[in-house]
Design brief:
Layout: H1 2-21, E1 26-32, E2 40-46, H2 49-70, H3 82-87, E3 94-95, H4 98-113, H5 123-138, H6 148-154, E4 163-166, E5 171-174, H7 187-201, E6 207-211, E7 214-218
Helix pairs in contact: 2-7
Length: about 220
């Protein structure tokens, strides 16, 4: 009990100094919905709404870059993204942006760190679940689960070692023509971290980024 009272006392004493450290500006918020199929919320200090709005727009543009690069469902003019990588499975190397190589190297490290529990090469399996879910939503009376045999066959094409990264030539190769990448477990959190670092490089000192619940604080 004495420890709890002491802790509360310390926190009360710290409040004035914490307030003194806070920027003498107002807190503003911006949010948008179209990127990474989720809600992004930004909160930060600024002198005016217009000033914060411009900074938020810069961050939004950063997020949009990662969204286009890491999208597995759509292609975009001027970008070679993960959708294009999946389309080239089994057909040789494809030149990609270094930010895709960064993500895939990080993903392979996460696979090793978590004993295969996080595997971005599971696209062949996840695609089946996605198709069954979408069909069930459109036709609820016909909703069903995929056959186990179908999932087991797809699971044969999820070997993360079949993702070959060549830094020197800036290429990635999917050796198995039936495999595909799905970075849904990693991309938003990874992008949030990268976007935060870019914001810091531009001078952001106090900012909160929530990219679909993947929260990153600056300052």
């Amino acid at each position: 009990m004495k420890k709890i009272i002491s802790l509360i006392t310390i926190l009360i004493l710290l409040l004035p100094s914490l307030a003194a450290c806070a920027p003498q500006q107002k807190i503003y918020q911006a949010q948008f919905f179209e990127l990474f199929d989720t809600v992004t919320v930004l909160m930060g200090y600024a002198d005016t709404q217009e000033e914060f709005g411009q900074r938020a727009e810069d961050i939004k543009q950063d997020i949009e870059e990662f969204h286009k690069l890491y999208d597995i469902y759509n292609s975009y003019e001027g970008y070679t993204n993960l959708h294009d990588v999946n389309q080239m499975a089994g057909q040789g190397p494809i030149v990609v942006d270094s930010r895709i190589l960064d993500l895939l190297e990080f993903s392979k490290q996460m696979y090793a760190d978590f004993n295969g529990k996080v595997n971005v090469a599971m696209g062949a399996v996840l695609r089946i679940w996605h198709e069954y879910r979408s069909y069930g939503q459109d036709y609820p009376e016909e909703a069903a689960l995929p056959e186990r045999s179908e999932l087991e066959e797809a699971a044969k094409h999820c070997n993360i070692d079949d993702i070959v990264i060549d830094r020197q030539n800036s290429t990635v190769t999917l050796l198995d023509r039936d495999m595909s990448l799905d970075v849904g477990a990693i991309a938003k959190g990874y992008a949030a971290e990268r976007v935060a670092k870019l914001a810091q490089e531009r001078g952001e000192e106090h900012l909160l980024i929530s990219l679909g619940g993947n929260v990153r604080a600056i300052g």
